[in-house]
Write a structure and sequence with these properties.
The structure is a homodimer.
Chain A: H1 12-22, E1 26-28, E2 35-37, H2 39-58, E3 62-63, E4 69-71, H3 72-75, H4 79-85, E5 91-94, E6 97-99, E7 106-108, E8 113-120, H5 125-135, E9 144-153, E10 167-177, H6 180-201, E11 207-210, E12 222-229, E13 235-245, H7 247-251, E14 255-257, E15 263-265, E16 267-274, H8 276-285, E17 302-306, H9 311-330, E18 335-337, H10 345-354, E19 359-363, H11 365-370, E20 372-377, E21 382-387, H12 391-416, E22 418-420, H13 424-433, E23 436-440, H14 445-455, E24 458-463, E25 471-472, E26 479-480, E27 483-487
Parallel strand pairs in A: 3-9, 17-18, 17-19, 22-23
Antiparallel strand pairs in A: 1-2, 4-8, 5-8, 6-7, 9-10, 10-16, 11-12, 11-24, 12-13, 13-16, 14-15, 19-20, 20-21, 23-27, 24-27, 25-26
Helix pairs in contact in A: 2-6
EC number (chains A, B): 6.1.1.15
InterPro entries (chains A, B): aa-tRNA-synt_IIb, aa-tRNA-synth_II, aa-tRNA-synth_II/BPL/LPL, Anticodon-bd, Anticodon-bd_dom_sf, Pro-tRNA-ligase_IIa_arc-type, Pro-tRNA_ligase_II_C, Pro-tRNA_synth_II
Pfam families (chains A, B): HGTP_anticodon, ProRS-C_1, tRNA-synt_2b
C-alpha cells in the first residue's frame, strides 16, 4: 500500500499539495507558476465547464473569442484598470528567434522587435470593449451578452496549484446594456448563477456579498462575490461579478443611440470563475484519505471492482456485472469497471478513494452466489452488503443522497466556524483559530486596512441577504448598520 | 435591402472577406493578425468542437491542459522542430509594466526581465513531452492518449481570417506508444477521424494522403493529411496527423520499461485541426448569396418567419407556430422564431440566407387559413408551399437530404476539377485554371521545388488509397509508380 497523504490537521498545506499529486489532478510545469492540468483533473473541470456553459446559455449568453494579446496602450485607457494589472503582466516584445552565432542554441532576434509591445491578457475588458465600439450603434444592439472561455496570465510571485497560478483557465462574461439598472440586474443575475452552481453542483455553500471599495475589481463601480469556507477555516473567493458602470464605455468611447434619439455611453458588466474552483472543490470536501467529489461533478460516479482469483471467476462475475453496467449507463450514471489484475482489490479501494469516486461496488464469488454486492460510499466511508436486485434505483438515490450530504456537511462546518464577535480583543483571539467573523465595521478603508495589517484578516464581503443591525465598529467604535464577514483568505 | 456581397467569379478573395463580415462570423482585431470570432461564427466552431471531442473520446482519448508558455531552450531540443518554428514565435521577455516618467503612459519595466525568455506555444510537442518524461515509466503507462483544446500563436506576416492568423484555436492530440506499429496505427486512426468529420459533418470530401518530406511537420517522420478542394479550385489542408517516431522521446529522454524488462524510447504521434476548418467550410459550400451550412453544423437549422401586419395577426400565427417549435425542439432540431418587427420579411429572408440557415419556413395569414407553410431550402434556393401537417418528419428528412446534397455537390465539383495530366506543358496550362492535377512525380525534393518555383503548385499529398500506376515524372521524365496530387493551395 502506498504511503498515506499527510493529514489535514498535521499540515493542511501539504495535505492539499499531496492530494493533488496523488489523485492525479495537476502538477507544476517547467515554467514557473504555470500548471499542467492532468486528464483526471481536467475531466472534473470539463464537467464544471459544461454545467456553467449551459447556465450561461439558458440566461441568454453566447460564446465568442477575443485575442490573447492586448496592445499595451489599451491597458492605459482605463486608469484604475492599468493600476490594478500593470504589475502582473507578461509582455511580448519580439516575434522571432534565431540561432546564436556561438552555437549555444536559440536567442531572441533583436531585429524582430514589435512596434508596440503586447500584453498577454490578464482579463479582456480592454480588448473586448474596443470591439464593442464597432458592434454597438443603437439600443437595438443591446443588451450584448457575451461570454468567453479562455486562458489568462497574471504574473504571480507566489503560486499554488489551482489557487494562484500565472496562467489559469477561466470564463469571462462581458455584457453591455442601455441602462444602469439593467446592467446591475445582470451583475446580480450572474452572481446568482455562480451561487447556484457552487451550491448545487459543487455542494459548496457560499455567502453572496458585495466587496468593499478596497477589494473591488480594477475598473468596476461595484464587485459582487461569492465566498466559501475551506476546511481550515479560511475563506476562498469563488467567483466575482462586476458592475462596470460606464467606465469602459467611456475609456473606449462606446456610445449608443437611445430610444429617444440621444447619444449615451453604454453600461457594462463582467463576471468570471476560474480553475480556482478546482482548489475550492478540493479544500471544501476532501479528507485525509483523498478527494471527496460531489456526484454531479465526479467523472466516475461508480467504480465496480470484481474480486477474483482466476480468469474463470472474472468471466463469471462479468456475466453478472456487464448487464448492470449497461443499465447504469442507460440511467446516465458514469461507471468504471476495473478488471485489471495488476493491483489487488485493497489497493484499488484506496486508489478510488483517493480519486473521490462517490460509490464503490465490489463483487466476489460469495456475492455472486448470494446475488449480493458490497456497496461503499466515499463521503461517509460506510459499506454494506445489499441485494443485487434493484441496484440501479438504489444507486441513483444514493448519488443524490451523497450530493446532499456533502453539501450539508460543508454547511454545518461553516455554521460551526462562523462567529459573531463584538470586540476587537475577541476578534484577534478568534481570527487565530480561523473561521468567518461576523463583526461591525465603520465602513472606512482606514479601519479595514488597519485590521488587515494587524490580523491578516480581510473583509470578504458585505453580505447581500443579511439583516441590518445597529452596532459599533469593533475597531473604531463608530456606528455601523450591518455586520460584515471578516476572514483570512486564499 | 443591403448591398449584395461580391460574387465568387468577380473576386473570390473579396467574396470570402465580405461573406465573413456580413454573416457576422469574425473580424480582424486591433492586434495585427489576431481575429475576433464573433458569437455566430463561434457557435459553428462550438458545434465542430463538440463533434470532434466526442470522436476523440470514443477512440479512448482524454483532454488535459498544458502551459501556454514554453521555455526557449525546450524548442532547441528537437533540431528540425526549432528549424520549423523559431521564425514565427511570439517571445515573452518581461513580466511587468510601469508608468513612464514623462507621463506618456505605461512602458515595459526593464527591471522585470525574465531570466529565460518564454515562447508563446506555436504547438505543444516540447512542453508535453517534457511532462511525459515524468508520466511514463513502464509499458503499463502506455498508450498515453491525450488531447488539448487550446490557442496557439504563429507570427504570420500575411494573415487571412480563419485561414492564416497569428493566433488561432485548435486541438492538438499527443500520444505515446510502446511500438512503432501502434503509433503508426494511431496516426492513421486519427487521420480517419478527421476525414470522417470532414465528410460526414462538414459535408466536405477530402483526399487522405501522405505529405512529401518537404511538406512534413517539423519533427515528424511522417505526416498524413486530408486535403479538400475549395470553389476556386485551390487546395486547403484541413487536418494533419503526424507519426513522430522516437524523435521527441529522444529529445526529452522519455524511456519506458518494456514487457521484457528493457529500456526503450517511446513512440509518438501528434495530430491537429484548427479554426482553419471554418475557412474551409465557408469556401467549400457557400455561394454568392452568403453562407451555406451543412445542417449538422448549423447553429440554427430552421428559421421561422411569420408574415403579419399587426399584433393580432402575429398572435394568431404564433398560436400555430409555437406548438410546431416545441415539436421541432423535441426532435432535436434547433429553431429560431423571428418575430421582430424591426425588419421586413424580405430583409429577413436575405439575412438568414447570408447566415446559411438550411431551412426557412414562412407563414402568412393565407397559409394560416389553408393550414400550409412556405418552406425554402438554402442549398438549392427552391421553395414550395406544403401542408403544415407532418411538418416535423418532413423537415427531418429535408435536413438529411440537404446534408447529403451539399456533400454531393462538393464531390461533383471536385471531380469536375480534377485532371490527369501527363506532360509538363499540360500541367502548366491547367494549373492556371485551377483544380487538382494528378500527375507523376519522380519522388525527389528537387523536382518538387522546381515545379513549385515555376508554377506555385505544391504536392498536396501522395494519396493513400490510389492505385499504383507506372508512369514518368512530368518534370524529369524519370520513372514513377503513382500519381500524386498537385495544386495551388491556401
Amino acid at each position: 500500500m502506498a504511503k498515506a497523504i499527510p493529514s489535514r490537521s498535521e499540515n493542511y498545506s501539504e495535505w492539499y499539495n499531496e492530494l493533488i499529486k496523488r489523485a492525479d489532478l495537476a502538477e507544476n510545469s517547467a515554467v514557473r507558476g504555470c500548471m499542467v492540468i492532468k486528464p483526471y483533473g481536467f475531466s472534473i473541470w470539463e464537467k464544471m465547464q459544461r454545467a456553467l456553459d449551459d447556465m450561461f446559455k439558458e440566461t441568454g449568453h453566447s460564446n465568442a473569442y477575443f485575442p490573447l494579446f492586448i496592445p499595451k496602450s489599451f491597458l492605459s485607457k482605463e486608469a484604475s484598470h492599468v493600476e490594478g494589472f500593470a504589475k502582473e503582466c507578461a509582455v511580448v516584445t519580439h516575434y522571432r528567434l534565431k540561432n546564436a552565432e556561438d552555437g549555444s542554441g536559440v536567442i531572441v532576434d533583436p531585429e524582430a522587435k514589435l512596434e508596440e509591445e503586447l500584453i498577454v491578457r490578464p482579463t479582456s475588458e480592454t480588448v473586448i470593449w474596443s470591439s464593442y465600439k464597432n458592434w454597438i450603434q443603437s439600443y437595438r444592439d443591446l443588451p450584448l451578452l457575451i461570454n468567453q472561455w479562455a486562458n489568462v496570465v497574471r504574473w504571480e510571485m507566489r503560486t499554488r496549484i489551482f489557487l494562484r497560478t500565472s496562467e489559469f483557465l477561466w470564463q469571462e462574461g462581458h455584457t453591455a446594456h442601455s441602462t444602469a439598472r439593467e446592467a446591475m440586474e445582470e451583475t446580480t443575475q450572474m452572481l446568482n448563477v455562480y451561487a447556484t452552481f457552487a451550491e448545487e453542483w459543487m455542494a459548496m455553500p457560499v455567502i453572496r456579498g458585495t466587496k468593499t471599495a478596497n477589494e473591488r475589481f480594477a475598473g468596476a463601480d461595484d464587485t459582487l462575490c461569492i465566498e466559501a469556507m475551506m476546511q481550515d477555516g479560511k475563506a476562498l473567493q469563488a467567483g466575482t461579478s462586476h458592475f462596470l458602470g460606464q467606465n469602459f464605455a467611456k475609456a473606449f468611447d462606446v456610445k449608443f443611440l437611445t430610444k429617444d434619439n440621444q447619444q449615451d455611453y453604454v453600461w457594462g458588466t463582467s463576471w468570471g470563475v476560474s480553475t480556482r474552483l478546482m482548489g475550492a472543490l478540493i479544500m471544501a470536501h476532501s479528507d485525509d484519505d483523498g478527494l471527496v467529489l460531489p456526484p454531479k461533478l465526479a467523472p466516475i460516479q461508480v467504480v465496480i471492482i470484481p474480486i477474483f482469483r482466476n480468469d474463470e471467476q472474472l468471466a463469471q462475475l462479468s456475466e453478472k456485472i456487464n448487464p448492470l453496467i449497461k443499465e447504469l449507463k442507460k440511467a446516465g450514471i458514469s461507471v468504471k469497471y476495473d478488471t485489471s489484475d495488476a493491483n489487488k482489490p485493497g489497493w484499488k479501494f484506496a486508489e478510488y478513494e483517493l480519486r473521490g469516486v462517490p460509490v464503490r461496488l465490489a463483487m466476489g464469488m460469495r456475492d455472486f452466489e448470494n446475488n449480493t454486492v458490497e456497496i461503499a460510499r466515499r463521503d461517509l466511508k460506510t459499506k454494506e452488503t445489499i441485494s443485487a436486485d434493484g441496484l440501479v434505483a438504489h444507486i441513483q438515490n444514493l448519488l443524490e443522497e451523497i450530493q446532499l450530504n456533502i453539501y450539508n456537511k460543508a454547511a454545518l462546518f461553516r455554521q460551526e466556524h462562523t462567529f459573531r464577535v463584538d470586540t476587537y480583543e475577541a476578534f484577534k483571539e478568534q481570527i487565530e483559530k480561523g473561521g468567518f467573523l461576523m463583526a461591525h465595521w465603520d465602513g472606512t478603508s482606514e479601519t479595514e486596512e488597519a485590521i488587515k495589517e494587524e490580523t491578516k484578516a480581510t473583509i470578504r464581503c458585505i453580505p447581500l441577504d443579511a439583516e441590518l443591525e445597529e452596532g459599533t465598529c469593533i475597531y473604531s467604535g463608530k456606528p455601523s448598520k450591518q455586520r460584515v464577514v471578516f476572514a483570512r483568505a486564499y
